[in-house]
UniProtKB/TrEMBL annotation:
Documented EC number(s): 4.1.1.112, 4.1.3.17
Pfam families assigned: RraA-like
PANTHER family: 4-HYDROXY-4-METHYL-2-OXOGLUTARATE ALDOLASE 3-RELATED
Catalytic activity: 4-hydroxy-4-methyl-2-oxoglutarate = 2 pyruvate; oxaloacetate + H(+) = pyruvate + CO2
Gene3D superfamilies tied to this protein: Ribonuclease E inhibitor RraA/RraA-like
Protein name per the record: Putative 4-hydroxy-4-methyl-2-oxoglutarate aldolase
Origin species: Carboxydichorda subterranea
Length: 218
């Protein structure tokens, strides 16, 4: 996908919501929403971008997260880092230094199946959105190691391939497979438009059942 096309898609997704995108994916039989435990942990700001993935696995060897560092250094501006890790809630796969590097590269955010640390520093100095399973002080070193990047990972119970679009807002995170991104965006925008009309009629005092029956959806 070329860059102006991608930019248009990303801007489009920023104009919709995870709720509408989740509904649009449901209609295609695709589960896009991550576990409710993956929440905004630093700043509460909507993010959308292509996924740059990192996979971490348990390891008692005391190794720095070299594959994660490589992934951050090589990610294109606007991308969102997605880290897949099993049972990672008690380990911080992201922190202040990774945030400093990601922000300097123009990355849009990070989505972690594990924990984040240095949260006070990130909130104070970086204004960088991190969606994570937990906030926890423990390092990965001696517990987990990043073994590869730019591979399919599972994050928050959802498969994420490099290049998929990830959208995060106050409701959580949704993953949109690249192959259906355009159609899902159009459908989500039309769900939003219909809901805006419904909300308007409800605010004007029409009975909820009447509005529901007219639009045949909630
Ligand atoms: O050590 C780590 O893996 C994460 C961390 O604290 C940082 O990026 O500052
Ligand atoms: Mg740190």
């Amino acid at each position: 996908m070329n860059s102006p096309q991608l930019q248009r898609l990303v801007t489009g997704f920023l104009n919709t919501t995870t709720a509408s995108v989740s509904d649009a994916l449901d209609r295609r039989g695709i589960r896009g929403f991550m576990s409710h435990e993956i929440k905004p942990r630093t700043v509460s700001r909507k993010i959308a971008g292509i996924a740059v993935t990192i996979r971490e696995v348990p390891s008692t060897e005391r190794q720095p997260p070299l594959r994660a560092i490589e992934a951050i250094d090589s990610a294109p501006a606007g991308a969102v880092i997605v880290i897949g890790v099993d049972n990672g809630a008690d380990v911080a796969v992201w922190g202040g230094l990774m945030t400093a590097a990601a922000l300097a590269r123009g990355l849009a955010g990070a989505i972690l199946d594990g924990g984040v640390r240095d949260v006070a520093e990130i909130r104070r100095d970086y204004d960088f959105p991190v969606y994570a399973r937990s906030i926890v002080p423990s390092t990965t070193v001696g517990r987990y190691v990043a073994i590869e990047h730019d591979v399919v990972v599972v994050c928050g119970g959802v498969r994420v391939a490099p290049g998929d679009i990830v959208l995060g807002d106050d409701d959580g995170v949704v993953v949109v497979p690249a192959a259906v991104a355009e159609g899902v965006l159009q459908e989500a925008l039309s769900i939003d438009a219909r809901e805006a009309q419904m909300a308007q009629e409800l605010r004007e005092g029409r009975r909820f059942m009447e509005v529901f029956e007219k639009y045949a959806r909630i």
